[in-house]
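Re: weekly structure request thread

Next one in the queue (302 aa):
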Amino acid sequence: MSETSDYENFDLPEFGHLYFDGYVAAKWDPHFPLTKDQQKRSLVESWTRLGKFGRNKYSDEDILWPTNGHPSYISQDLLSGKDRKLDGQITSTLWIRTWFGKKDDVASQDAADVAYERLVEAAMWDDAQSQYPRYRAAIEPGFVFDARSEFGHGSATTTDENGDADPDIVDGIALARPGSVPSYLITALMHCPGQFDGNSDPRRDDWRHFSPTRIEAELPGIDKSQRLLVCVADRKACEEGLVLFLAINHRGQILPFRIRDRAIEVFQYEANWMDGQTLDENTLKPDDDVEYYMHKGDGWGS
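Done, posted below.
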């Protein structure tokens, strides 16, 4: 069961129209010792960690459109056509699957696929088992990231099974440590690195012209402010129906207050977020390290 977006009708931005292009143009290293994809990942992560004011430097027209053009060694195809059309557009909510069953256990992986299908039906479809299911539009289809090759075993997602230091996933559960930039988020952002700030005309964004003094004054508040909503389909979500909702700041860091809630509530969380309601509006202590369960029992019940 799948749903498609109308992104095919979007214009395809040439290289230089996305602000991430400016970062690639400035930082691409033709002598990078690892693969092209590994250099792309490194750039996406460092770009994310810069934060909004650090990224803003690369919206400069002299970087995006140099007089003599970009050197031929700069890779201009890091984003697919679909990714270029969607980058920085439509939504600031991402859905990321991280549970694919246990490593080297086919039965566990098959069960995980069945569980994930149930979760998706509960989160995104009305009358999923009927002849005419209706997509609930809880998450824009272009921002559902669930490819096994990208997020499963052998991917860059850090897990205890792989023996990674400080893993983001332990026994299939997303740890969601406050202040961390989770590996699975970086993988998703490799498709949409401009999702934090968009690619609007700098002349229309006052914050792009703040003085250093103003930036210094603004940063403490911005560091604590939600910029993305990430819905994580980890093992607990797939098996118990309790999706993990993360508030992500402008540097890609997880903010302290997280929520677990029923899959059927995904649409409401997305609607609230689009309406400007942040996750920490559900608590009086937003700085406390808390994963709050909004529903007692498993996530499939009423």
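The mean pLDDT is 92. The chain has ten helices and ten strands.
Next request, please.
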